[in-house]
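Suppose a colleague, Dr. K., hands you the sequence of a protein chain of 102 amino acids and asks what its three-dimensional shape might be. Before reaching for any lab equipment, you can write down a predicted structure in token form. Begin with the sequence itself:
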Amino acid sequence: MEILDLISKKPSIVVVNLDRAAILTEISEASGALLADFGLSDEVLNQLLFGELVPEGKLPFELPSSWEAVENQKEDVPYDSKDPLYKFGHGLTYESEVVTMN
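The predicted structure, expressed as tokens, is then:
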């Protein structure tokens, strides 16, 4: 996978535009950070990456850990993936701290 080759060379923040669940296990393990994008503008994304805004939000679906887990899911049962990479509702945030220089 080309992205794995790229992020193995330098610590990387990977931004993934998600409109449905995806298998991102290898990318998550190889990247320094993984950010789910649900339609951000480039301006807002840059503000998040450079600390001008604080990221917030929760996954509206789970992210499976493998294709095998997807194949073993029941079609009519939500959130039944075995050992999901990120569960439904997963989300991290951090406190923004403003540093001023005198």
